[in-house]
Amino acid sequence: MGLALALALVAPHQELMAAGPAPVVLGTTAQFTILSGAAITTTGGGVIQGNVGASPIAGSAIHLTQAQVIGTIYTVDASGPAGSVDDPTLLSAAKGDLTIAINDAKGRTPVPTGAFLNPNGGNIGGLNLVAGLYKFTSTAYITGASVTLTGGPNDVWIFQCAADLEVGSSVQVILAGGAQAGNVFWQVGTSATIGTFAVFNGTILANQAITMDTSSVMNGRALAFSAGVTFDGTSGTLPTPQNPAQGSLQVDLTPFLAVGNGAEWQVDGGPSQVSGFIMPNLSPGIHIVSFKPVNNFITPANQNVTIISGQTTIANGFYAALGGPAGSLTVNLLPQPQIAAAQWQVDGGADESTGDTVNNLAPGNHLVTFTPVAGWITPANQTVTIVNNQTTTTSSLYILIGPGLFGSLNVNLLPAGAVSGGALWQVDGGPDQTTGTTIANLAPGNYTVSFVPIFDWIAPPDEIVMITAGAVTDVSGLYAATNSFIFAHGIYNGLFSTTNGVTEQTAGMLKSLTIGTNGIYSGKILINGASYVIRGTFNTEGQASNTIPRAARLGGPVTVAMTVDVNQPFPQVTGPVSGTNGGLPWVANLVADQASNTVPAAEYTMLLPPDTNNNPPTLSPGGDGYFLITNYTGTVRDPAAATVRITGALADGTVFNQLVPVSQDGYVPIYASLYANKGLLLGWINLYLTNTDNVSLTWIRPQHASGMYQGGFTNVALTNQILLSLWADPPASVDLLTDLSTRETIDDPVFLANYNLTISPALDFANVVALPIVGGSINRKTGFFRVTLSVRGTVIGDNVNAGTVLKGNEGIVTNGNGETVLTSFNGTPLVGSEQITLIGYGAILQNATNGGGYFLTTTNGKAIQLNP
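Given the sequence above, the corresponding structure tokens read:
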């Protein structure tokens, strides 16, 4: 990183190995100094060298006069300024070529990294940049100091700015070593602003507006695709190709008051030029620079400048106020002597030290600026008023940056749709900031947080916040959508249940609710084992209601009221679902997430443990349900295609297989109607393993006449009980035993990728002398395991031949003492070496160092545990 930074910022041109990317091809756009998609406005005075045009807006929106343009003003119709030319064909071609140029500059690769990505945190003021491709992921700034582009006449710079380009007052884009304005390209995602008295070099390719503030100078092009151009500058000049055998000259004039009153310069007695203009194609050798007289200022003496082939020579001309009305300015910098290196300038002139006095300043307002000092906060610029025959004295305080003396401000913007649409914020009108950015070293006190307006969203009102020393102040800004459906359109899936708990009759799923950009929707309600279609249109408030006309025998009508909410971090559909059950009213709460899976494709194993209130164990299964979860991500064009497939079994042996959607924040709604639509599995899991808010699963098994758990049960597994772990097929080097038949009994250690297989203490057989393992395996692909146990009895009585193996799990009952007893098919206890087999199932949690499963008897389920 250190080497890359050095090469990018300070290396002399002659040491470079490359001269940057290929130039951006401008096509017919190249002839325009200003080209816009909307109005071209001005407060008057400036001169433009090169053509001007606007399309598709009418010619009447161009407020320049032909006297200001050394070139042609092109319009789409006959309503333009006097002398303009009506040529919509040329303008259409130029706008088309501008689109191509913007896309070319924006799409250049390879994507910049290191010192070419967000150089100096996004503010390149004070840097010296070699030719190359630079990228700013937010607004690009040139503030506080000038930026120098050092390179040869054929070297190219392309700057990719994702948001705005902000050029501060009085700063310059300096070209050194022969670098040419025609080879500098600024691709701007939104708008560009050139500050007062700034000197800018290069072609701006902006999606939106371009503003040149008072007395600014541009050597390049202002090409704004969709919005307007404000030209309040002194000049805008089309870049002239440089003859490599020739040199260039740039002359900067100060103070700004003289520039504003008409100060200009000439080389070798030629045409007058404004401050900051670069005169190309001068022959190598000595040339004479002279200066235009300005009232109330002393004209600088002529200067001899030396032009070098392939390079740009920079000269300065200072106009001193003379005679008549004049005043002086003294500036004291504090504290001293700690900041002895600090300096100040008036109107962009020479550096001055603390206590210095500048004389011969014309009465009126003047701008005082300050140089940065490492470790100190630079004072803000000051505007001072000079009075005739008086000395104005002012002071500025540098503040030491240190812990505990200052506070910080963090602003989060919502919702996600507004953030992706370009939502930004500022503090006290400063640079744009993205959501989640923290600004440090703010002095205690009140600050104004404002929010950038963006298309299709209403920006939050300004907010006054108080900064406290040593603390971070957190602020949220909530944008409101002008049309919710633009951001809410998509597919939603979610669940509803009452606050009193989940029942089969009052809980269900909203599935595949598709909302269009016009608010039209359709989807399904799943409840009590049935599916019902709902359709309609959301009103302008984002609300809709449907009544499902169910028959009384099915529970009667169900009303679904929905509200689209785009002001969450991710869009949701919420509302009440209501009906009656057994004549009693019920109301459930619906929450549905937008399906747009951003979770990486992966597989997981999950265990659903037994109810902690399972005592005695005959009330509900004592083992773990186990599942394999496979996440299939969506595509960029169809994020809603993302789904999760869940396969496995509940701990009573009920096989489970479901394909369900995934929300943007990783939540997966699970709904399954079980046991002939009389039971239910419902709840949420989250594939982002660190996000467990609102995660739970409810498993309902109804009462029934025979078999296990005849009384039925409702098991609720909460966040900390559901065990979920990523599963990856272990490499061959991992000891994962795939054949368990070599183990003699469950008392022998069985190493399964560093796990031991044990049987839960809840398995308590009466009269059992051994539990040998007779077979089993582990599936490396899924993490599932299968184990077979052989159970033998003692001499209690015999009506079964010795060694008989009973089928499945038949022959196991529970006696009156709650013990499990081995019997034959007709209920007679087994004798001696007589045996039956038990088959258990489960899954490994690869990242949690444990696992689990179950096997079944005829009356209940027992646990298989994997422990490290």
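Confidence is low (pLDDT under 50) at residues 1-18, 737-772, 792-834. Try to locate this feature in the token string yourself.
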